[in-house]
């Protein structure tokens, strides 16, 4: 862990909304070594909080039952907080397609509540977690996450326009984080345990591949370096879903195989992490893209009247990023602790 992260986090209080999820569990594992004053886990699932409390058994952790949809509960949790990681969200494509208003309540209105509470309590920094589905969105989860980004940017602009800088609002955007709860890898591994043929939506469909540890590093990078209204993206390789299936079959010597199940409603063939328009103003910071907002402040003429000439680049997508072959995908997957554990249990 970088020394700059420890310097920023030492003796600080961190609130993680949706803190019992895959991101919360992973980031807490790293936060406890950075000597924070307190880590507040804010979520609505008491069973997951019970499991997490037993898993870490650490007095630094404080568990708060609440919902980002409820303004009062998030305001209570925000007292004396220095930093916020806003991870609470509905994330499943089918769930949000069937219940889009629930995505609106959690991902859009919930984000507004979190940012308003952070502003009221003069929190130092808020990092909101977004997804590649928010870029050129075609489904409810993507649309709601795109609005989440816009709300964050608008709040940041309001601060800049008013001359106040008590709270820095910024965000991160990443693609398929490997082996998070409800994602494709644990689902496919569960089917392999039952010796079932693996359903792959489309063999040529591509997805970014990002280990959870690198997603956490991206969030720390935004926490330490993030500027008001800016989004941060980590460069990531990708592979086709057939390559992913072939890699899994090779790792576990799985002979039952896989088949094309067809593209589900709301799914793209390829995901995008940075749009053509964003690349015009993006700044490359080593492994990261830093994406400033369209304009700082509330100068409406920059939206309605004036423009700038620029060369248009191709968007940064899972189709044109570095493409992993089966061998490279195997190498990435076998580094995952969950895959290592699964292999160990099978020996």
What is the fold named in CATH at topology level?
Rossmann fold
Helix-strand pattern: HEHEHEHEHHEHEHEEHEEHEEHEEHEHH
In total, how many domains does the architecture comprise?
Answer: 1
Instruction: Please tally the helical runs, counting DSSP H or I stretches of 4 or more residues.
Output: 14
| Unreliable segments of 5+ consecutive residues | none
Number of DSSP E strands: 15
CATH evolutionary superfamily: NAD(P)-binding Rossmann-like Domain
What share of the residues does DSSP label as strand, in percent?
15-25%
Molecular structure report:
The mean pLDDT is 91. A nine-stranded mixed sheet has the order 3-2-1-4-5-6-9-14-13, sandwiched between helices. A hairpin with a 2-residue loop joins strand 13 and strand 14 (288-291). It has a single domain (3-175, 211-235, 272-317), classed as NAD(P)-binding Rossmann-like Domain (Rossmann fold, 3-Layer(aba) Sandwich), CATH 3.40.50.720. The chain is α/β, with parallel strands linked by helices and 347 residues long. It is globular and about 60 Å long. It contains 14 helices and 15 strands.
Task: Give the secondary structure arrangement, pairings included.
Blueprint: H1 3-9, E1 13-17, H2 22-31, E2 38-43, H3 46-56, E3 61-65, H4 71-77, E4 83-86, H5 93-98, H6 100-120, E5 125-131, H7 140-162, E6 168-174, H8 184-193, E7 198-200, E8 206-208, H9 212-225, E9 231-234, E10 238-240, H10 241-251, E11 258-260, E12 272-274, H11 276-279, E13 283-285, E14 288-291, H12 301-304, E15 316-317, H13 326-333, H14 337-346
Parallel strand pairs: 1-2, 1-4, 2-3, 4-5, 5-6, 6-9, 7-11
Antiparallel strand pairs: 8-10, 9-14, 12-15, 13-14
């Amino acid at each position: 862990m970088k020394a700059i992260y420890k310097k920023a986090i030492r003796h600080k209080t961190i609130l993680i909304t949706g803190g019992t999820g895959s991101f919360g569990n992973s980031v807490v594992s790293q936060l406890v070594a950075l000597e924070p004053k307190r880590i507040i886990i804010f979520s609505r699932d008491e069973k997951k909080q019970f499991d997490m409390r037993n898993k870490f058994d650490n007095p630094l952790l404080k568990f708060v039952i609440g919902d980002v949809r409820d303004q009062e509960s998030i305001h209570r949790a925000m007292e004396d907080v220095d930093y916020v990681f806003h991870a609470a969200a509905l994330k499943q494509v089918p769930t949000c397609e069937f219940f889009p208003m629930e995505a609106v309540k959690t991902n859009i209105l919930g984000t507004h509540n979190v940012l308003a509470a952070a502003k009221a309590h003069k929190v130092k920094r808020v990092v909101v977690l977004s997804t590649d589905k928010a870029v050129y969105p075609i489904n409810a989860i993507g649309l709601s996450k795109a609005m989440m980004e816009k709300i964050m940017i608008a709040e940041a602009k309001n601060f800049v326009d008013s001359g106040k800088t008590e709270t820095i609002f910024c965000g991160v955007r990443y693609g398929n984080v490997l082996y998070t709860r409800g994602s494709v890898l644990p689902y496919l591994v569960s089917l392999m345990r039952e010796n079932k043929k693996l359903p792959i939506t489309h063999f040529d469909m591509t997805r970014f591949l990002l280990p959870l540890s690198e997603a956490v590093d991206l969030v720390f990078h935004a926490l330490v370096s993030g500027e008001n209204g800016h989004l941060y993206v980590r460069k990531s390789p990708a592979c086709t879903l057939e390559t992913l299936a072939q890699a899994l079959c090779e790792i576990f010597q799985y002979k039952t195989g896989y088949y094309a199940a067809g593209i589900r409603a709301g799914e793209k063939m390829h995901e995008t992490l940075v749009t053509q328009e964003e690349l015009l103003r993006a700044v490359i910071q080593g492994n990261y893209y830093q994406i400033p907002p369209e304009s700082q402040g509330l100068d409406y003429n920059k939206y309605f009247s004036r423009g700038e000439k620029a060369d248009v680049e191709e968007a940064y997508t899972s189709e044109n990023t570095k493409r992993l072959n089966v061998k490279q995908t195997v190498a990435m997957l076998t580094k995952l602790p969950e895959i290592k554990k699964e292999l160990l249990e099978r020996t």
